[in-house]
Design a protein that fits this description.
With 109 residues, the protein is mainly α. The protein has helices at 4-8, 30-87.
C-alpha cells in the first residue's frame, strides 16, 4: 500500500540528497562538479586565511610580551622628563629666531 503523497507524485518532486558514504563517479556528478570545486576552493581559502590570522595573532601576542619591558622603560623615561619640567629641573628656552613646531616627533609628525 502506498501513501497518497507518493501516488500523486509529490515525493518524486522532492530533491534527493546522496548519502555521504556513497561515492559518485564524475559522469553522475558532472552537473555538481563545478559547484563542488567552487565550494572546495572557497573552503580552502577560508581555512588558509584562518590559519594565517591565527599565526599573526600568536606572533603579535609574543611580540607584545617581548616588547613590554621596552615600553615600560619608554613610559618611565617620558614620565621622568615631564616631571623634570614640572619641578623646574629642566627649563624651556627662548630662541632668537621664530620656531614652528610641527606635530609629535615620536609619532612621526
Amino acid at each position: 500500500m502506498r501513501c497518497p503523497a507518493s501516488q500523486s507524485g509529490a515525493v518524486a518532486r522532492l530533491p534527493t540528497v546522496p548519502a555521504l558514504h556513497v561515492k559518485h563517479s564524475l559522469q553522475n556528478c558532472s552537473s555538481q562538479l563545478y559547484f563542488g570545486a567552487k565550494f572546495w576552493c572557497v573552503s580552502w581559502a577560508v581555512s588558509l586565511l584562518w590559519k594565517l590570522v591565527k599565526m599573526m595573532l600568536l606572533l603579535l601576542n609574543a611580540l607584545k610580551w617581548l616588547l613590554l619591558p621596552l615600553g615600560m622603560l619608554h613610559w618611565a623615561a617620558v614620565w621622568l622628563r615631564n616631571r623634570c619640567y614640572d619641578w623646574g629641573i629642566c627649563r624651556s628656552r627662548r630662541l632668537a629666531v621664530p620656531v614652528i613646531s610641527i606635530g609629535n616627533i615620536q609619532m612621526g609628525g
